[in-house]
Amino acid sequence: MPPSKVKHPRLPSPSAERLQLARKPTSTDADPFLYQSILSEHHDNADGKPEKTVLYLAYGSNLSIEKFRGDRGINPLSQVNVYVPALRLTFDLAGIPYLEPCFSGTQYRTKKKDTNNAYETTERYRDVVDEKATIDTLEDIDLESGNQEHGGYRKDQWHKPLIGVVYEVTLTDYAHIIATEGGGNGYVDIVTECFPFPGADDDNEYNPSDPTPDVPSGNPFMAQTLLSPPRSAYGPNSHVVRPDSSYAQPSARYLKLITDGAEELSFP
User: Fold this and answer.
1) Cβ neighbours of residue 242 under 8 Å, at least 6 residues apart?
2) pLDDT in tens, the chain (268 residues)
3) What are the structural domains, with CATH classification, of the chain?
4) What are the φ and ψ backbone dihedral angles of 190, each rounded to 5 degrees?
5) For residue 14, how many other CB atoms are within 10 A of its CB?
6) Whole-model pTM?
């Protein structure tokens, strides 16, 4: 008989005080060199004091509770679902031939002004494509229209913020996450702005059937996460990043981790 799966109960949301701390530029959550400082220091709670924590944005296969909290052994203290308008989900990290064609990552998006409205100027987002990429067909994708010069591709049609879950983890767990994800080698560790789902830190109510906003409202906070490395950082025959981020399809197994996680977390 196969062993039964361990149940991982949903965690409470970070406290209002913890989210407020993550809005300060001096917090660990906003420190762009956090991982490097952890490597150079020894963090433990031998003195009996609670270990410091950091907010970490998980996406892709790490949405799966069984994978993130079970297989990887991460023990978060709290969690909150978020919109991340500055990032988009990609499948541009090279995988394992014949097993996993590609792995998920993120790339930056950037704001642009919407001047079509005669009454007000609003900000929208569009994708940023690596200017030094060697593939001619990699053009800027207009996220408002979902169109691309060469006809577009359905994997590039999502024109709204990245959706993920932010976990509050100890610095020890954070160092383990970055090390096992290949931070500084496969991925680049960064700080990004996250907007909590309605109801996380206000009186609004979240409904999964509600549409995802183009530009989230509310009070954002900062969290650490991982970015795919730019294609220009590697040669044209690199085995780290795929030359065309829209070409490979993730395996059914990998996609199931993402969709199962999204369902567990009550994503839209």
Assistant:
1) 91, 92, 93, 94, 102, 248
2) 455 566 678 899 999 999 999 999 999 999 999 988 887 775 555 556 778 999 999 999 999 999 999 888 899 999 999 999 999 898 887 778 788 888 888 988 876 545 444 433 334 555 554 444 433 333 444 444 444 444 455 566 777 899 999 999 999 999 999 988 865 556 888 999 999 998 766 556 778 888 888 888 889 999 999 988 766 555 555 555 656 666 678 899 999 999 999 999 999 8
3) 16-107+161-264 (3.10.490.10)
4) -135, 175
5) 25
6) 0.79
